[in-house]
Structures are given as structure tokens and as C-alpha cells.
Amino acid sequence: MSGLLKLKFVASRREVKYGKSNKETRRAKLAARIDEQIALATAEIAGREHVAMQTKTVVNKLTGESVTNEAQKRIKVWYWKDSTGAINCEVQYGAMKLELSKGKNAVQVTNMKELLVTLQLIKKAALDGELDSAIDAALATRKAKNAA
Question: What's the burial of 40, exposed, middle or buried (CB within 10 Å: 0-12/13-18/19+)?
């Protein structure tokens, strides 16, 4: 016990997890999802199918052994063509649609190349913190629904 008396004890709380703040982590998560949409749109322009892979660890119930496998990742497409032929694109944070402008949740473009440029602009805005308030509003809505 005398060894513990030499230590300095404090009441502390970790503010930054893994070298990033919560806002930086959210920005990086959104930017990664936007990159997936860019890859989907690029593949669609090229006329091929985009296949994203992820690793999954599965435990064998009989032996208790962990096995890591690669599986195809399902990516939900954020964009669609409307009846006029224009392409609408919504930005999602998890399952929640972000409100990019007051009362508006989608961006409208005329073609796929313009969609790529738009997604790049949205990614830059997300990394610069311009979408932090939209992410916070979506998370607050989710917390309110879970509390009710």
C-alpha cells in the first residue's frame, strides 16, 4: 500500500477518443460514406457494378473458433432520378437524412458527372465542419425518438 501513496490521483475524464474529437469522428464517418457514393456513381458512369468488400469475424458455434471472412458490403444508394429526369441526392448520416438547407433534404443535379462534383463539394463541406449542425440536429431527433 505504501507504493500507492507515492502516486498522484485525480478525477479526470477523457475528452478525445483515439486522437479525434466527436465532431471530427462524425465528419470522418460522413466523408467515408460520401466516398462510397462517389464510387457508386463513378461505377455507374463507367457502366459497371461497384462491389465493396468488408471483413467479418464469425465464431464457429461448435468449436468456438473465430474465422475472418470477406463479404460483400451492401451500400444504399443516396441518389435517384425523378420523373423529369433530374437526379436527386440526399445525404444520410447512418439511417437519418440530413437537412442540408431549411426544409430541404436533397440536392438536384442534371447528370451523373454533376453528381460527382456535387458529392465532392458535400464531402469538403463535411470535412470543413459545415454540416456539423445538420448532423447534430439529426442525432438530437434520433435521441428524442429513442427517449419517447
Answer: buried
**Per-residue pLDDT tens listing for the chain (148 residues):** 577 778 777 887 766 655 667 888 899 999 999 999 999 999 999 999 988 899 999 898 888 899 898 989 999 999 999 999 999 999 999 889 999 888 888 999 999 999 999 999 999 999 999 999 999 988 888 777 676 6
Give CA–CA dist 31/61, Å, rounded: 37
Could you tell me which residues come within 8 angstroms of residue 125 by beta carbon, excluding any fewer than 6 positions away? 131
The three grid cell numbers given for residue 113, joined into one nine-digit string: 458527372
Q: List the domain boundaries for the chain.
A: 20-147
Instruction: Classify 134 as helix, strand or coil.
Output: helix
- φ/ψ of 124, rounded to 5, equals -60, -40
